Amino acid sequence: MIKFSIKIKWTLFIVLLLIVTITFTGFFMLKGVLANQMAYYEELLRENSKIANLYIRETYISSDSDNFEEFYVREAENLVLNLKRIIHLPIAMYDMEGQILFSGGNISVDRQPPNIMIDALKDQCVYEEYGNEIVYLAPIYDFDKQIGVIKITYSAERESIFYKDIKLLFYKISIVSICIASLIGIVYFSKIAENISRLKYSVEAIEQGDYDSIVKLDSQDELGDLREGVFFMAKTIKQNIEDITTEKEKLELAVKKLQKLEKQQKEFIGNITHEFKTPLTVLKAQIDLISLYRDDEDMACRSKKIAEKELKRLDAMVENILSLSRVEKYDFEFKREKINTKKLLNDICLRMEGKASKFGIKIIENLQDAYIFIDAESFMQIFINLIDNAIKYNVRNGQIYIRSYIKEDKNHIQIEDTGIGIPREHREKIFEPFYTVDKNRSKNFSGTGIGLSLVKNLVENQSGIISLVDTKKSTCFEIVFPLYNEERKCRIK
């Protein structure tokens, strides 16, 4: 019922639109034909009146007459007959009183309306239609003034037949066009109405909770898009229902995650408190010793050295915590630029050679030229931290291998030492703040457990990846940065 109704409405709309269009087109077209015919009549009759005037003047000049008006009245018959042979139209001549002088055709004098003749006698060209005849009146002149009126009758029967034929042909074409448009409209809109009915069926299926019975449409227009929208809506509703059924599990998981985060926060605060408390306790003890043994210079000197060492450790801890906080919150302060990693790594190794040589450790470089887009200060901080750790946790007279190479449009950089390595059970936690594998050893080297966490944050903020490479004994960190290109530079900026 709905399909049939839509089909009829759309078809009637198209037919009515076509009728209105044809009506307006036909009206102005036929009006244009009439205007064109009238312009042709006027031009033809105007030219013929000029020919008549010229002929009358030439005839007068070649005659022996001295008076143009007398010549015009006397020779009216000959003039009319000769002009009729020239212009091939019925002609009549009148004097200035409106009286006919001679008629060269079947022209009824009493058919002439007085107003037309009056206008013609006032030096005007006028015409009027009588059925298929056009009566044209034009003034006749001597060399100075008007001396009479010439009447030319034109039969427009042929043009009238042509106009009627055009009008009839237009009606026939209009009727055929409307019939064809109606048939095409019925066929075309039947398909559209059928697609709408299918969409209605799909919507009803969704209302009943059946989200998989969405019919397909062979349509590449807005109806096809609407079907895709209905299909997407059905999938979304189905997915939402499935999500609602599992909401309880997700909420429980979210609660567990929150509890875990709360626990991590407490551990983080506890670690900060513990790590701060240790150097502060040592400082307090050394200050007490200095107060108790003021006269013992050796004791005061030892206490002072220990206090200085703990102050440096506390200062490093505070600085690392501040750096970690800045990395997490103030990424916009990075000044990225194009750098050569080989050149920068050479510079870092030169800086760290002094500290490495104290423990007999040799830094071995195997570097390839590679350009990346990064904050140079962050790059320096990353690898100074990693090389410093490689020195701290290495064996005496050990080696540190620094390798840099390009693979799959990425710069791979490895820092490997010959130390005791990191046990497998600790590898997942080494990037957590305040986490150290060997507490006692880290204290000996003023470790805070923040360095690797800071390094990880710096690497990730520079679009890099850091990971611990599996080795049998040694410790090897691998950092991967994307190579420099203009497209990435514009995207980051």
TrEMBL record:
The molecule here is called histidine kinase
Enzyme type, top EC level: transferase
A molecular function GO annotation: kinase activity
The reaction(s) catalysed by this protein are:
ATP + protein L-histidine = ADP + protein N-phospho-L-histidine
TM region(s), chain numbering: 12-30, 168-189
Query: Where is it localised?
Result: Membrane
Protein keywords: Coiled coil, Kinase, Membrane, Phosphoprotein, Transferase, Transmembrane, Transmembrane helix, Two-component regulatory system
Keyword presence, GTP-binding: no
**InterPro entries linked:** BphY/WalK/GraS-like, HAMP_dom, HATPase_dom, His_kinase_dom, HisK_dim/P_dom
